[in-house]
Amino acid sequence: MRRRTLFAAAPILLAAACTSAPPPLPPIAVFFTADSATLEPEALEVVAGAAQRAKATTGPVLVLGFAGPAGGVAYNVALSEARAQQVSDQLVRNGVARERIRIIPRGPVPFESIATESRRVEIRIDG
Prior knowledge:
By secondary structure, this protein is of the alpha+beta class. The protein has a single domain (about 20-125), classed as CATH 3.30.1330.60. The protein has three helices and four strands; from the N terminus they run αβαβαββ. α3 (about 75-95) links the parallel β2 and β3. The protein is globular and about 40 Å long. Residues about 1-15 have low confidence and may be disordered. It holds the Pfam family OmpA.
């Protein structure tokens, strides 16, 4: 009798284990022009959408800044931080609590398949 009870509970335990951790959401990319930390109108729309998604969760919001490899390392680290700060500030303006946001400047990265892909900020929302 005891075995039957254990096997009857197994599907419930398995279902609970599978639903406890949702899969991570894919990062949202915000792109910039060369040597700029200015959010263009299209980027503002992307950040607004990310803010809506972030407000639907309770987890942390990571804002990772990137820059291309052209120019000095110190310049590109500062540029990647400025880009991440602009996105963070815009997320706050769109209703995301500042204490949920963590800025991580990544600095220069090699050009990817398209040069503009290196000039980006990634927003990662853990939910």
